[in-house]
Design a protein that fits this description.
The complex is a heterodimer of chains A (387) and B (504). In chain A, strands 1-2 form a two-stranded antiparallel sheet. By secondary structure, chain A is mostly helical. Chain A is built from 18 helices and two strands. Chain A is globular, with a radius of gyration of 24 Å. Chain B is an alpha/beta fold and 504 residues long. Chain B contains 13 helices and 16 strands. Classes of the chains: A mainly alpha (387), B alpha/beta (504). At the A-B interface, helix 1 of A face strand 10, helix 5, helix 8, helix 11 and helix 12 of B.
């Protein structure tokens, strides 16, 4: 830069990327706590594995790319990717699944495209989508800690454990729950005494969209009516409370002006409108209520945390609205007419595809441009003076 | 508060490569206060002359280039004046009853007093006023919204001399024949607002009074087009002048200078300037004589020299650093910052643009700085112009909020310069191409004529001036022929295209 140019402006707000990322991490905390409460330590183990591998992969790639690892690592963007990815992966997944996904996200989806700021696709969702395509089975179970209380399982002649055995759900935050989560993540650590397959095959709860438990009614309302504690495991309010937690985190981000309202609002209202249009009381089993679509799955985290990743999203305001609508339509279409249960990842990736063209064509009007001919402009003597 | 008279004044009279300067004094000459020292001929027709007057009495010691506290960051030709301390002044001719003056008289007096836009642009005020004669003016807006953080010169002027500013506004209103005069001020300056209200109540003006409009403080509301929109709701189209919409804007400093020029008959030899920054013990606003050097003012404020890291002219967002403390205050110097080492963050390491769009949220021109940055990096001129690079007012708001600490405004300035250089290159190459083609044409024509001269005896030329006229005719002839051949080529191409289409 020439000497002439150095200088103005001298003042700076002091904001930096690391701060933004930090705030984003804080905003994820309520959702993570809710998930921890309902589904046990699986999410924490996911996060720990993802962060470890993300930082390793980031450091290795920065080294290969001849970047100063300390300044670039300190921007915390790898942490955010790791966290978003870990939250999306079912708790109780084996360690290699998490590691593979996050390394794919950091190495292929981020650094091979030029690193922070250059990746055209959301890295966390790239990792997730890759896993979903490659390991559909592992990616669709949702493990809950449980304990077999009436002896060993009977196994039928096909080798499938019969579901006749009675199980009791363990408190997710209990020592037993923690041990189970650890064993699920690191199966090689299991001693001979414990049959890991019990946990693996035994009880995998699908995400609620497939079960439509809340199809007719909010579980929160149901729990309140029946007098069950909202935070009790039995009340089945898990997904609703988790979504509300992410909603709160998202509102915090809006309040902190880390994200703008355009993308979340566009996504949420599009999903809501589509769900309301197609919802027919007789057909709940197929389409689900608007409420279910908003609070029964990953819509909130997708709308506030994933689709708003600024690097891969549209960057102009009108572009952001269209981008949100595209993602909203994709979320609903894939869920209802597609073959995947939840659709945030593919919807966001599809939105990423569209972002560059949206930025080119959906631009705000430049101040002083595009005014109609001079005579059409507001005449001075008709213009009111604001005072 | 006005400063004591410095012993040495360095009065800027214009950039070396700027407009032509007519010097009216010689080295060694004793001059009185208010004596006209030089005239800057901004346009060749002499309508835009800006005279420069002696701020005090003394001897002209030298005329040389030196650094000036303005944004050009270039040296200017300056008249060095050694003050004798007597401050002997020429007799002034106050116009006590300015209401009797005609528009042209007012414009003439303002021109003669050397008043220019004191807000920073430095456009000759008389020219702006003459331009108002071309269209009916509805609004005269007096800009009392300080342009940037750190600057408080306009506020101080209003607090201390609101009456005179209001009178100056009346004079400008009369000179521009505006129907309404609005003084726009930000809501963060209650003292100045009180002073203005007081002044407006006491107003002894002739026509309708001035109105006071308090606007919210939102940077950069002091910018002309932004302020016009804020006050009147009118958006001035890019490439058009506000007068086309019946609006004209002057800075409060200019209004005050107009008051001095007419009512006191006093030329523009001083201005209000803010002295601030953490390296100064007591930051102050001064009424400074034009030509006072920065170090003199720093001394008055008690500077801690060891603590000063840089000197900035203007505010913290659009200011420019100047290298020498000997830099002279000129008519547009509204603020000088003596910044301490930790006053402004040292630029942190640039990070990648993450396209967060904070910059677009704060851009007063509603540009997309993040896109402009990307296109600047690839030097994509078409996209840059399409995305309104030239509409960037370089206010620095995008830089201020950028979490990646990117030097956005500097990048845009460089892109603008690159595009301008390219445009000039193209223009030059077009010009020389045309010259060359004309040369070839002429050579060929002369050859042809030489051939035909053998056959026909040429008529004697009757006029001495004919060759020049002939050449002009030739050139016109050549250009029209050139045009004709282009037209033919275009017509052929059209026909061909149509035929191709049919064949498909």
């Amino acid at each position: 830069m020439s000497d002439l140019m150095a200088g103005a402006p001298f003042q700076h707000s002091g904001r930096n990327i690391a701060q933004l990322m930090q705030t984003l991490l804080y905003a994820l905390l309520p959702g993570i706590f809710a998930s921890l409460w309902f589904f046990g330590f699986g999410i924490l183990i996911n996060i720990a594995i993802a962060i470890t591998f993300a930082v390793l992969a980031e450091a290795a790639m920065l080294r290969l790319r001849n970047r100063v690892s300390r300044t670039h690592l300190s921007d915390r963007s790898a942490l955010v990717t790791a966290l978003l990815f870990a939250i999306a992966i079912p708790p109780g997944s084996p360690w290699w699944l998490v590691a593979l996904g996050i390394v794919f996200a950091i190495v292929i989806a981020k650094h091979l495209y030029g690193g922070l700021g250059k990746n055209p696709f959301n890295p966390a969702m790239c990792g997730y989508a890759m896993l979903l395509l490659a390991f559909p089975l592992e990616m669709t179970g949702w493990h809950i800690p449980f304990e077999v209380i009436n002896g060993p399982l009977t196994v039928d002649n096909l080798g499938i454990p019969a579901l006749t055995a009675e199980r009791e759900l363990l408190s997710p935050l209990s020592w037993g729950g923690f041990k189970q989560a650890l064993l699920l993540a690191f199966p090689f650590a299991a001693s001979g005494a414990i049959d890991i397959s019990e946990f693996v095959d035994g009880l995998a709860m699908a995400t609620p969209l497939i079960e439509f438990k809340m199809a007719g009614k909010s579980a929160l309302l149901a729990a309140r009516e029946s007098g069950v504690s909202l935070f009790a495991r039995e009340s089945e309010t898990a997904w609703e409370i988790i979504n509300i937690s992410y909603l709160l985190g998202g509102l915090f981000l809006l309040y902190k002006r880390i994200i703008s309202w355009h993308i979340p609002l566009a996504i949420i209202s599009t999903v809501f409108v589509l769900a309301a249009l197609f919802y027919a009381p007789g057909h709940v089993a197929i389409y689900g209520t608007p409420y279910l679509h908003l609070f029964g799955s990953a819509t909130m985290i997708g709308a506030f945390f994933i689709a708003t990743d600024p690097v891969s999203a549209a960057t102009t305001r009108p572009g952001k609205l269209v981008y949100g609508i595209i993602i909203g339509v994709s979320i609903y279409s894939i869920r209802v007419w597609g073959s995947y249960l939840d659709s945030i990842a593919f919807a966001v990736l599809f939105g990423n595809f569209c972002a560059p063209i949206l930025d080119q064509y959906c631009r705000p009007r430049i101040f002083g441009h595009g005014l109609r001919s001079k005579t059409d402009r507001a005449r001075p003597n008709e213009a009111p003076v604001k005072s | 508060m006005s400063t004591p008279i410095p012993q040495q004044l360095t009065i800027p009279i214009g950039a070396a490569d700027g407009p032509e300067i007519t010097l009216l004094v010689d080295i060694g000459e004793q001059v009185s206060k208010y004596k006209k020292l030089a005239v800057i001929n901004i346009s060749a027709e002499g309508v835009s002359d800006v005279p420069v007057h002696a701020p005090t009495s003394g001897v002209i010691t030298s005329i040389e280039n030196s650094i000036v506290a303005d944004h050009s960051q270039q040296q200017q030709l300056c008249i060095n004046l050694a003050a004798d301390g007597h401050d002997e002044a020429l007799q002034l001719e106050p116009q006590s009853n300015y209401s009797l003056l005609s528009r042209t008289d007012i414009v003439f007096l303002i021109r003669d007093a050397g008043v220019i836009g004191m807000g920073g642009a430095g456009f000759p005020t008389a020219d702006k006023l003459s331009k108002c004669a071309e269209s009916a003016i509805e609004f005269l807006i007096i800009n009392a919204a300080e342009c940037e953080p750190y600057i408080t010169a306009d506020e101080t002027l209003l607090r201390e001399r609101a009456n005179k500013v209001v009178l100056g506004a009346q004079i400008l209103k009369r000179a521009s024949a505006a129907r309404r005069c609005i003084i726009a001020i930000e809501d963060t300056k209650p003292d100045a607002i009180d002073a203005l209200n007081q002044a407006l109540q006491n107003e002894t003006g002739l026509d309708q009074g001035c109105e006071l409009v308090v606007i919210p403080s939102k940077y950069p509301s002091g910018s002309e087009r932004q302020l016009i929109q804020c006050v009147t709701g009118i958006e001035i189209a890019t490439g058009h002048h506000p007068t086309e919409n019946g609006i004209v804007m002057h800075n409060v400093g200019t209004a005050y200078a107009a008051y001095e020029a007419i009512v006191e008959g006093k030329p523009c030899i001083s201005r209000f300037t803010t002295l601030c920054g953490q390296a100064l013990k007591t930051p102050k606003n001064f009424e400074v004589l034009i030509g006072t050097t920065a170090d003199f003012l720093f001394e008055l404020c008690g500077i801690e020299t060891s603590n000063k890291q840089k000197s900035i002219v203007g505010g913290s967002l659009m200011g420019s650093e100047f290298g020498s403390d000997k830099a002279a205050i000129c008519k547009t110097t509204n603020c000088i910052i003596a910044a301490s080492a930790n006053e402004f963050q040292a630029p942190q390491a640039e990070q990648a643009c993450i396209r967060c769009g904070f910059c677009a949220d704060v851009c007063p021109s509603k540009l997309l700085p993040q896109q402009l940055l990307a296109f600047s990096k690839t030097a994509d001129t078409t996209q840059l112009l399409g995305h309104g690079l030239l509409d960037c007012i370089e206010c620095g708001a995008c830089d201020y909020v950028c979490p990646s600490q990117l030097p956005l405004v500097s990048t845009y300035k460089e892109s603008k310069k690159r595009i301008e250089n390219r445009r000039q290159d193209l223009e030059l190459s077009d010009y020389w191409q045309q010259r060359f083609q004309f040369h070839q044409y002429r050579v060929k024509k002369e050859k042809d004529q030489a051939v035909s001269r053998k056959a026909v005896v040429p008529a004697k030329p009757t006029l001495a001036a004919e060759p020049a006229v002939k050449e002009q005719n030739d050139e016109a002839d050549f250009i029209s022929k050139e045009q004709a051949s282009l037209d033919i080529a275009a017509a052929v191409a059209r026909v061909k295209a149509r035929r191709d289409e049919k064949n498909k």
